[in-house]
Amino acid sequence: MQSLLDALHSDALNELTSIRQLSDLDSLKTLYLGKKGKLTDILQGLGKVSAEERPRLGQIANTIKTDLLTRLEQKRDELQKQEWAVQLQKEAIDTSLPAHRLAIGKHHPINKTIDDVVDIFTRLGFSVETGPDIESDYYNFEALNIPSDHPARDMHDTFYLNTGYLLRTHTSPVQIRTMEVQQPPVKIIVPGKVYRCDADVSHSPVFHQVEGLYVSKNVTFSQLKGTLEHFLRALFGPEKSVRFRPSYFPFTEPSTEVDVACVNCGGNGCNVCKHTGWLEILGAGLVNRNVLKAVNLDPDVYTGFAFGMGIERIAMLRYGISDIRLFYENDYRFLKQF
Amino acid sequence: MKFSFNWLKTFINTDLSASDIADKLSSAGLEVEGFEEIGKGLTGIVTGKIQSIAKHPNADRLVITQIFDGTDTHQIVTGATNVFEGAIVPASLPGAVLADGTKIKKGVLRGVDSYGMLCSEKELGIADESHGIWILPEDTPLGIDFVDYALLKDVVFDISILPNRGDCQSIVGLARELSVILDTPLSLPEPVITESGKTLDLTVTIQDERCPIYTARVIRNVTIKPSPLWMQRRLQVSGIRPINLAVDITNYILLEWGQPLHAFDYHRTAGAQITVRSAHSGEKLTALDAADHTLEDTMLMICDQSGPIAIAGVMGGERSGIADDTQDIILEAAYFHPGSVRKAASKLGLRSESSVRFEKGIDIDQVVRSANRAAQLFQELAGATLEPIMIKSNPSAEAFQKRTLTLDPAKLNQLLGTDYPTQDILDILQKLGFHLSQDQSDITVPSWRHLDILGTPDLAEEVARLKGFDTIPSVLPTEIVLGTPPTHVSKQIAKLENFLVHTGIMQLNTYTMIAQKDLQGIVEPGPDLLVLNNPLSPEHAVMRPHMLPSVLKILAYNVKRQADRLSVFEVGKTFHKAQNSQAPLESVQLVALITGTPQVYFQAEKAVNTLDFYKLKGLWENLADLLDLTGYTAQTEPAPSYLHPVRQLTYLLDGQSVGEVGFLHPELLKEWDLGTEVGYISLNVTVATAKQKATPTYTHFSKHPSTRRDIALLAPKQLPYGDLYQTLQELKSDLVQEIFMFDYFESEKLGPDNKSVAVGMIYQATDKTLSDEEVNQAHETLCRQLTERLPVHLR
Ligand SMILES: [Zn+2]
């Protein structure tokens, strides 16, 4: 009887190996292990076996059955996987066909640069303020210590409107507008469009400035230096050399112009920096006493610093752009690069 | 402004190189924009007289000259045609080096020996172009080192003089500044002159307080001839063209002392009577620019008996000017009010070397000295006779008053954040010409800084710039200032911009000024249009009242350059004139223009991706969602002129237009040469963000299961879906939570006047699970009422 069981075992295994389809697997299972299957047939002869032999043979038969069931399940898994593979293979596509993207949308490089600059200052506690593009002579000039017969007006080629108003030549009027309604400490950053009657490769009649103002008690020039150095290193990299030169602006005293080591040559001198190794990037200074007086602040009590920068210049240096007019052509081939 | 290093060195001693000087000036606040080294390497040029000129045996175009240098004679072959016997010329002998680096050697020209070369101005590096050999004045000595004699070697600094440093608009002023920066003495020789007795009449009357001092001197027997070479060279390198000795001397003093002078022809100055007064309105003057100028009564004039002869500080008149036959002159040296000169110059459009100096302020204490220095030159160089100077002044005028400031070193240090020792501060200020009081508490501002130094911050700047700004420590402010959050509007704008960019639409940044013609078909230019008085070009001449022209222009520009699939937008300001001359109105508008479809290649997807009105509408409503905008309505009339009349919508919020969607009007497309359909979306950001939304409060939502029922309708084509939806909203029971269209078509089978609309409805109660019966009953009632109310049939 044992030989019958062994033969059944090896027959079943042989057949299992040759099976290729899931449906055949089920018939095989029925053929050998079903209620009327070959194993049941053999076990029906168990009654003729001696009582001592019976448990042993029963044991063997059970082992065979378990083994076959395990192997059948293994085979089932295997076949199922194969079937999936065949099925999915039919669904093959050409994955190298071009991607369907949304059209390319990008932020304008000027807007992007403004955001980055403003971010650095808001982290230092500056609040964003804005003001009108169309200004009065008072806010744009008079209140900023630039009376009408002052030679400093030559630094501003101004557009005038048919109403007597003008297009602001800098974002500084927002200093006045803010201090008129807000008591110190005032700590603001002002991005915006500004206008000058001037156009060439490096001048555009419309451009953008970011202006900063901090007015409180005991504001010093050394705090101005610290703030601007922090800003320039945050923008251009921590190792950047920064230089402060004395300069003149009617609304600050003392005044300074701030240079960074040329981003193009690193300070060795090249065409970008006119062989000086430095790039002028900011104008700044301590708020002129007359400006504080214009907003009814006592200059003996309050001091402050102010600074301003041209965003186009910073964007040009950042992105290696040599013609300012590219920003306003808004050519798709230009815009999609940023 | 250009400054000759040679000239500067006549007042200070320095061995520093030009680039060292440039660095030191820049770090002290005088921005050197560059410097030019003229005649660098030039050497071995001598003067010689052409003794004879002989024909060249082998060349028609060459001649053989014998040049005598006072000791030896040199044979030099030249091709120049302007040479003549007796002429004194510069010659480069073997061993010499020309301005362009050419080394001169003995040569043989067509078989004749030539020991050097006769030189042109170009070869000596002082002119870009020259014609022939430089023929020198007859009195030029022979055999001298011509490079030194004619000042051919120099360094010219180009310095940008800022409006507060009027004192540095002269060689003397810059030398004074350098002497402090370099800590080297300044030598300013006092002019030496011999005055004759008074023989010619002259009267001066000042009738206007804008002239605190006016000096005039009659100078007789002036010969009008070319000025000496050294003077011409100094004028040339400073950017002034030599004219004649009299004019050159006035310009020379202007450059050297920063004192503008004016020379009148004595005999053409009517009555020899000079009056300083304001112009009579409408008076006329033909100035030295040969133009007729109509004067205004605010302008300060110099007049003689018969009227104006000069615009004070700006320009002289033609009638009384120096001519070739001039013999006797009146030399004016005066101080005119800076603002007054500036106003007159800019009104007349006459900016001169003189006016720019008066505008920034000249040194009132040096007026007479400059006049004397000029007189000295007239005496030395023109052999003129000097009559005594006539000085009219008003010593109580503000310009003469010395400004005394309180000196508080602690306050100065506090302002800078520095710790400079008091002694250093005092030293620097004294070197700069400030006068310290006995007790060191007061300090008097030097006359040449009168307009600029007004208080402690100015003193702080003087000390800091000479100490060097790098000596000021860098610290961050430690005060905590509470920042205010970004304004509602700017935050909302950022949201809109980010959303559109992420949707695949390109952000633009355009000029706010546009061409008036670009408004055609968009906005009728009305009286509220803001127009620029002084536009740079007609392309940017009016302030845009609408964003569409700006964005459309960029779209058209890019389409012309073959960019397809364009979608662009900008959130920008628009401008309108306000009533009653109040400040113009600025508002913020978003305009997006969308063309083409995303690049897809499967036929089915092409249909799905085609731009249609409902995608535009969807995008607009997405934007509205982003701003939490609710309660807006849509209207189809009136249609904006620039949109397709029956494919557009205007959204209203509280009766105000808050935005529009649609396709651009085909006529406008044609105007802009656009072949494709262009989708348009606008949002009035100012209106849309006017009301800040409150923080939403949570409302409980039903957790009971919902049931869907659909209605399939055959409806007349004319019946807008909006009406159908509105009717359903009105008729529905409280159990309906949501109504949505899920199918829509028109077909031949339905007939030309019909359409099929299928609407889904979600039924749900908040307090219980609805039974089928309840839902059916509600739904049937709704269907029945709908068919009664509208001409629709259930399908
Ligand atoms: Zn460089």
Describe the protein.
The complex is a heterodimer of chains A (338) and B (795). Chain A has 338 residues and is an alpha+beta fold. Chain A has two domains: 2-90; 109-335, BirA Bifunctional Protein, domain 2. In chain A, helix 1 (2-18) runs parallel beside helix 4. Chain A is rod-shaped and about 130 Å long. Chain A has helices at 2-18, 22-33, 38-44, 53-89, 109-123, 137-140, 173-181, 221-236, 289-294, 311-319, 326-329, 332-335; strands at 127-128, 134-135, 166-167, 186-195, 206-216, 242-249, 252-261, 278-287, 303-310. In chain A, strand 6 and strand 7 (252-261) form a beta hairpin. With 795 residues, chain B is α+β, with helices and mostly antiparallel strands. Chain B has six domains: 2-39 and 155-182, Phenylalanyl-tRNA Synthetase, Chain B, domain 1, CATH 3.30.56; 43-152, OB fold (Dihydrolipoamide Acetyltransferase, E2P), CATH 2.40.50; 203-400, Phenylalanyl-tRNA Synthetase, Chain B, domain 3 (3-Layer(bba) Sandwich); 404-471, Phenylalanyl-tRNA Synthetase, Chain B, domain 1, CATH 3.30.56.10; 488-688, 2-Layer Sandwich (BirA Bifunctional Protein, domain 2); 707-794, Alpha-Beta Plaits. Chain B is 26% helix and 26% strand. Chain B is built from 20 helices and 38 strands. In chain B, the strands form ten sheets. In chain B, strands 26-29-30-34-33-32-31 form a seven-stranded mixed sheet. A five-stranded antiparallel sheet of chain B has the order 5-4-3-6-9, with no helix packed on it. In chain B, helix 5 crosses helix 6. The longest helix of chain B is centred in the C-terminal third of the chain and has 18 residues, at 772-789. The N and C termini of chain B lie far apart (90 Å). Chains A and B meet through helix 5, strand 1, strand 5, helix 8 and strand 6 of A and helix 7, helix 10, helix 12, helix 13 and strand 26 of B. The structure holds zinc ion (ZN).
